[in-house]
Amino acid sequence: MTLQAWLMDDSNEDPRVPHRRNPNELVSLDQLAELGVLYWQLNPNNYENDLELTNIRETRGYNYMDLLDLCPEKVENYEEKLKNFYTEHIHNDEEIRYCLEGRGYFDVRDKHDRWIRILIKAGDLIILPAGIYHRFTLDPTNYVKLMRLFKGEPVWTAYNRPQEDNPSRKEYIKSLTQKFGVPLAAH
C-alpha cells in the first residue's frame, strides 16, 4: 500500500485523529512532490541490509542515522515533546524519517497554506524539504519507531512560524516557482 495523504479539516479536536474533510480530498504523490516532499516505500524488516535504503543514503549524502522510539513509556516528558513536534515550524535542513513500526502524521502546508496530512506507517520513508512549514504527531496508538537520517552531524533546530525572512524559507518559496529535481526514482 502506498502513502496516504489528504487535505485536513479545520477541526480543533485531538490532533491524533485523521482530520479528513467530508468529502475526503486526497493528495497524490505527484502533488506532494510538487511541494518538494519525497517518498519511498521500503521493507522495514530489512532496513539493516536494504540496498535501496543504502542507495538513497549514499546518493543523498545521509551519513548519520539513529533510531527513535516515540511513545509515553520511552520518552521523558512525552506530552511536552509531542506538543513541541506539533507546533508549526521549519528546519534549515531536510527532515528525513523512515518509519519502522507504528504510525504517525506529518502535516505540511501546501501552496495555498492549507494543511495536508500525511500518514506514515511501517515502510514509509519521507523527506521534507528545508523551509517547508510542517508539524508531526502520532495517531491514537501513541507509538512510532523512526529512523532519523542526517547529512553530517545531526541537527534538529526548529524555527517556529513565522519564518518568512529565514533564508531556508525564502529558498523554499523560490523553489516552488520552479520544478523540483528528483535525483532518485522516488515514489
From TrEMBL:
Ni(2+) binds at residues 89, 91, 95, 134. Catalyzes 2 different reactions between oxygen and the acireductone 1,2-dihydroxy-3-keto-5-methylthiopentene (DHK-MTPene) depending upon the metal bound in the active site. Fe-containing acireductone dioxygenase (Fe-ARD) produces formate and 2-keto-4-methylthiobutyrate (KMTB), the alpha-ketoacid precursor of methionine in the methionine recycle pathway. Ni-containing acireductone dioxygenase (Ni-ARD) produces methylthiopropionate, carbon monoxide and formate, and does not lie on the methionine recycle pathway. GO terms for molecular function: acireductone dioxygenase (Ni2+-requiring) activity; acireductone dioxygenase [iron(II)-requiring] activity; iron ion binding; nickel cation binding. GO terms for biological process: L-methionine salvage from methylthioadenosine. Its EC number is 1.13.11.54, 1.13.11.53. Belongs to the acireductone dioxygenase (ARD) family. GO terms for cellular component: cytoplasm; nucleus; plasma membrane. It comes from the Eukaryota. HAMAP family: Salvage_MtnD_euk. Fe(2+) binds at residues 89, 91, 95, 134. Its cofactor is Fe(2+); Ni(2+). This is Acireductone dioxygenase. Pathway: Amino-acid biosynthesis; L-methionine biosynthesis via salvage pathway; L-methionine from S-methyl-5-thio-alpha-D-ribose 1-phosphate: step 5/6. InterPro entries: ARD (IPR004313), ARD_euk (IPR027496), RmlC-like_jellyroll (IPR014710), RmlC_Cupin_sf (IPR011051). It is found in: Cell membrane; Cytoplasm; Nucleus. It is a peripheral membrane protein. It catalyses: 1,2-dihydroxy-5-(methylsulfanyl)pent-1-en-3-one + O2 = 4-methylsulfanyl-2-oxobutanoate + formate + 2 H(+); 1,2-dihydroxy-5-(methylsulfanyl)pent-1-en-3-one + O2 = 3-(methylsulfanyl)propanoate + CO + formate + 2 H(+). Binds either 1 Fe or Ni cation per monomer. Iron-binding promotes an acireductone dioxygenase reaction producing 2-keto-4-methylthiobutyrate, while nickel-binding promotes an acireductone dioxygenase reaction producing 3-(methylsulfanyl)propanoate. Gene3D superfamilies: Jelly Rolls. The keyword Phosphoprotein does not apply. Pfam families: ARD. Keywords: Amino-acid biosynthesis, Cytoplasm, Dioxygenase, Iron, Metal-binding, Methionine biosynthesis, Nickel, Nucleus, Oxidoreductase. It comes from Cajanus cajan (Pigeon pea). It is an enzyme of class 1 (oxidoreductase).
